[in-house]
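pinging the channel bc i need a second pair of eyes. not urgent but kinda urgent?? the chain im working w is below, pasted from the shared doc
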Amino acid sequence: MDHWKREEEIQEILLLLQIRIKSVQLREINQELTINKRLYSLEIINSIIDKKRIQLIELNDLLSSQKNKFESLKKESESLKSAIDENRERFLITGKIIHDYELNTIKSMNGFEFEKYIAYLFKFLGYKNIFRTQDSNDQGIDVIAEKNNFKYGIQCKLYSTAVGNAAIQQAIAGKAFYKLDEAIVITNNFFTDSAKVLAVGTDTKLINKLKLDELIYKVACYGNYVPYGYNSKKVEVKISNK
């Protein structure tokens, strides 16, 4: 019995030793795995850092390229702006000359010529399908023009005194007769206070001497505008009559 008991104790000791050895081995394996895990994580992090570094280099190259393009465009823009400013100055000077020329031309016009001039002027103001009504029985409207799908009736008054109510009343009647969207009364002079009140109450647009001057100056500064009195077949602007 003692022999068997001794044998069991030895087996138990051996088993404990094996367990201890396995435990040590497992701990070593665990430590090794931890180290490998850290190393693997570092490799991944380094790989990500390398990729980001490459992306930053590419982005920096792109930004540098875009900066060069921007500088080039900036120089072109400055050059273009300089040319535009120079041409604008020329247009303004030329426009002032043409403006003064047109005002002097109006002074020598009669009523019939003034109507033709207003029709010519409105063409350069962006109006289409411009035509003058009959020389007589015009029903209060001298020129009809279209813009942005609106039809406008224009009453032209070349007066040496202020324009009164009668012209506004004629324009109102003409607007209804020709079925127009808006009536305009334009003059080389000014309007009486009574005419202004009537115009406001009937939605009639008034263009007096000062506003007419502004419109003439506006078109005179256009590069393609030709003074009304300038006779040339190359620059003739035809306005239909009905």
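so The chain has a mean pLDDT of 81. and The CA atoms of residues 46 and 175 lie 82 Å apart. — does that match what u expected or am i reading it wrong
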